[in-house]
Amino acid sequence: MAGIRVLYAGTSYPAEPVAGGAAYEIFSDGPAEGFVLGRGGRHRRFVHASEVSAVEGTVELAADQPLTAPVSRAVGWEQIQRLSQGRVRNPLLAAVRASATVRRGTRMVKPLSARQVAGYLGGWQPHGFCYRQYDVAHLRTPAGLVILSGTGEPPGEVAFALRWRAVDASDYHVPAAAYAGLTALPPHDRVGPPVLGTGFAPSGSQLIPEFVTADLADLPLPANAALLAYTEDASEVVLYTYQPEQRGWLRMAGPQWRQLLAALPGVAPDQEYLPVPAGAGPSRLVGRYQGAEYEAVADPPEEFRVLAMTRAARYQVESLSRRTPYATWRGTACTVVRSEGAWSRLRLCRPEPDAVAALGAQCYERGVYEAWAPTAEIGDAVEADFPYPMADQ
Fold first, then answer.
1. How many whole angstroms separate alpha carbon 105 and alpha carbon 285?
2. What average pLDDT does this structure show over 338-362?
3. How do residues 254-280 score in pLDDT, each as one tens digit?
4. What is the DSSP string of 86-112?
5. CA-CA distance, 349 to 369, in Å (whole number)?
6. Do the strands 303-306 and 319-329 form a parallel or antiparallel pair, or are they unpaired?
7. Residues forming beta bridges with residue 130, ordered by sequence position
8. Bond before 301 cis per omega within 30 degrees
9. Which terminus of the chain is less hemmed in, N or C, by CB atoms within 10 Å?
10. What are phi and psi of 275, to 5 degrees?
11. Across-strand partners of 43?
12. If you compute the radius of gyration of the chain from its CA atoms, what whole number of angstroms results?
């Protein structure tokens, strides 16, 4: 991929593709508007592929599809972006949103706070609002990523994120009609920016499709999920990667990034491996092999195997399902996040004002509402299985 150049804002720049051509890192010989000085002493900027007018050179493109729209002289991308920030349903906008799809193996991203990073190191699972890496690959600084933050916190010197690969498209919903209750929640009952109901993130300039995990439930972590840090000079640092057979996070960041780890509450920067207790997350993968059921591991897009410490026992499963606990409390459908003695922590599947008030639920991040309930009061407790097709997608 040597010798690639792109035309951006009427100027040709040397460039390197990011995330399979979803974005480009462009370089300038000196200071320029929007460019930052990178660690190698070069001025650089990250731009989305849609902002590039032309590409010289061969780029191996990712399999994920970009947003598409039937634009015309009357309606262009700027008009579509403005439509995405409203609350009126529009057939054109719906068609654009439908072009953003998740496939098996799509890389998903969820911005995190330092506290949330520590939570994932302790066993949390992906849940709530998330994005395709393809759509946000150009956001590489804390200031850029703040528009995706679900915590409502201002940008700091470093931003964090979780990145993983989707096991199946059925695990991801568009936060539109089925989640309309989120748009009705008042500011004092929410965290982070409002949910517009168009399926796009609230932004004055970006057109970024949003997703939520199905029913806002936890999803089992696939192999090699990564916890990332983004610095003010647009560096992406892999802090930890998830190793399911070892049930823990392996530290990847070298000594030069140790100060980033020091910002994580309760995390020892020098610890190379952080074990996750068995059963720490409510959701798990189960598979069948030769008539028996086993806990399974997903390594999308092609490998789904029995969870086993020895390689010889990591058989490819013949069927695969996500198993997630559900319950009903005070007439509201919830997932069970965890149980502690006589109490259960519940997360609302479809948050809306009346249900939030009835359950006394609290918002812990954008779109995620949870409450403690006496276990004896909850009903319809069941572990629901969501089967995944094993054929190639």
1. 16
2. 96
3. 999 999 999 999 999 999 999 998 888
4. SSS--HHHHHHHHT----TT-EEEEEE
5. 9
6. unpaired
7. 211
8. yes
9. N
10. -70, 145
11. 28, 37
12. 22
CATH 2.30.30 location in the chain? 323-387
Q: What mean pLDDT is predicted for residues 140-155?
A: 84
Any idea how long the chain is?
A: 393
Domain 323-387 fold is: SH3 type barrels. (2.30.30)
69-78 long-range contacts (CB < 8 A, ≥24 apart) are: 69/95, 69/96, 69/99, 70/95, 77/50, 77/207
Q: Exposure pattern of 17-42 as b/e (b: 16+ CB <10 Å)?
A: bbbbbbbbbbbbeeeeeebbebeeee
Tokens of 242: 């998830």
219-242 residue pLDDT tens: 999 999 999 999 999 999 999 999
CA distances from 360 to 86, 189, 275, 314 (A): 29, 11, 33, 44
Owner of token pair 């970009």 = 66
Nearest to 103 by CA among 217, 211, 220, 227: 211
The whole-number pLDDT of residue 1 equals 46
